[in-house]
Amino acid sequence: MGRARVRDLGITIGRLPAGPLNAITDVAGVLVGHRTLITDAPRVTRTGVTVIVPRGGAIWTNYAFAGAHSFNGNGEMTGLPWLEESGQLGSPIAITNTYAVGLVRDALIGYAVEHGYSHRFHLPVVSETYDGFLNDIDAFPVKREHVYEALAAAAGGPVPEGNVGGGTGMRCHGFKGGIGTASRAVEVLGGRYTVGVLVQANYGRTAHLRVDGVPVGREIEASRGGPEPKGSIIVIAATDAPLIPIQCTRLARRATVGLARVGGHGFNTSGDLFLAFATGNDLVAPPAKPYTLTMIPHEHIDPFFEAVAEATEESILNALTAAETMTGLHGTVEAMPLDEVRRIVARHRPA
After folding, report:
1. Strand pairing partners for 238?
2. 62 bridge partner residues
3. What is residue 149's three-state secondary structure?
4. Which tens digits make up the pLDDT trace of 297-329?
5. Is the pLDDT score of 140 beyond 90?
6. Rounded CA gap, 53 and 55, in Å?
7. Could you tell me which CATH number the domain at 6-285+298-334 has?
8. 40 membership: H or E segment, kind and range
9. Which residues, 6+ apart, have CB-to-CB distance to 41 below 8 Å?
């Protein structure tokens, strides 16, 4: 069969309902943009940039509460010291390859200055995973204009997955990986909220891959598993609920549960970095008066933890099912065999 999302295989992850698009863009105001770079000359390029833009682009002047978690720190996510100190996110988030982090960070600051958003300073969040098997990462193909193009392309609606943006050259569980997304709806205290997740998946061993709890990787490892990735995964979670910073940190930490369900172990070479932001409170910047805040009580936060775990699990699987076979600098990485996966999962399910 052609490339698909995991639900197209008849596999439903978890018990909570997905949003209309089953994507991070189900969270009101969240936009996603990709700039994909694929060339064979003069250097082999299989890379790009993905941006997540909260508040429909108003994040520069209306901050969002946020928190982060490092499951294993062999990676980079800029801006975290101030984010952890202040609990606030004040720019779009970008994901790219390991060697482009500094350039993409500087491009976001340049964009802010050029568009008049520089009312004080900016320490944007940019993260990475390593794509040097397929991409000639030493050629530094990502340029400032590519970041601007990703921002210009940022939109709501369905999110392209697989070999796109920052995920273009990534591998996952021995197969082609990349960008994946999913969402869940949560009802708490009479309110209905959305939790959305986007991942850049580039981690894991074939033998550890599980699909809805089924040990798919063990069954296909001998004949179909490809080269083992050298880390990592980035998970960005968004919600429209009124969570405060410590709750965002707790939400980010629970993404680890979804990663573990698919088969991630946080190995030494893996940069497993997670960030969650919440747009349920307005934090106008610069502030002219004290903020008036609301929050979900801790006693009612468990459904959000369940939602982010399910959405992370499904996002990773969507990255795998959407990604296509790719040949690059050092060889070919095969796509996960969807027909075989569907047969294996069906065989483990009761009739």
Report:
1. 196, 277
2. 284
3. helix
4. 999 999 999 999 999 999 999 999 999 999 999
5. yes
6. 7
7. 3.60.70.12
8. none
9. none
| b/e per residue 141-168 (b: at least 16 CB within 10 A) | bbbeebbbbbbebbebeebbbbbbbbbb
Decide if 87 contacts 248 (C-beta within 8 A): yes
Domain positions in the chain: 6-285+298-334
Assigned token pair, 119: 């009312």
The whole-angstrom separation of Cα 99 and Cα 72 is 19
User: What is the rounded distance in angstroms from the CA atom of residue 325 to the CA atom of residue 310?
Assistant: 26
> Across the beta sheet with 191-201, what order do the strands follow?
88-89, 62-73, 271-284, 233-239, 191-201, 178-188
pLDDT tens readout for residues 206-231: 999 999 999 999 999 755 545 566 68
Orientation angle between helical segments 302-322 and 245-262, nearest 10 degrees:
50
- State the catalytic residues: 232, 270, 272
Residues, the chain: 351
